[in-house]
Amino acid sequence: MKDKEGYLLLEKEFVFHGFNFKLVKDFEDGWMIYEKSKVDRIHKKYELIKPKKQEEYIFNGKKIEAKWVYPNNNQFGRTGFDCVSLDVAIDRHKEIIKNKEHEEIEEKLRSEELRIPNGKFTIKDLQKANPKLNYSIIYSKVKELIDQKKIKNCGVKENKKGRASNLYIKK
Asked: What is the spatial distance between Cα 92 and Cα 25, in angstroms, rounded to a whole number?
C-alpha cells in the first residue's frame, strides 16, 4: 500500500531478525508504536518510532521503490525508542511532543526583537526589559549584538554581592 505521495507504507505486521513486529498505534504526527515479540517468548516490548522516507534507487540493476523505512540501530535515541510497556511508549511520545513545542517556543523567542534600555545597562537590566526571554537567550543575543557592532561593552558595575556585571551601551 502507498501513501498519497507514492511511497510504500510500512507493513502493519512483519518479522525481522526473529522478532515479530505488530503496529499498535499510529499517531497523526508520523510517530508509531510497534509491539516487538519473539516467537518463542511471551514477553513483549514496544518500540516508538518515526519512519523516514527513502527515495527510489537502483541496486544491482534492480529498481527499489520509494518507501517509508523503519529506523536503523544508529537512529534509536532520536527517531526510535525501546520501551518496556505500551504506557511507557505513549508517555515517551507525549514527552517528545512537549519538547518539540518547547523548542518551537524557544525558537520564536530567539527571533523576537530585543528591547534595549537607554543608556548603560547590564544583562539583568535587559532581562527586566524583556521578561519573556530567559537569561541564556538574552546572553546569546548580547553576543550577537556585540558582533554586529550594535552595542559595545563600556565597563563594569560593581555589585554588593557576587562579582561585577558587564555594562553595555548602544553604539
From this structure: 13
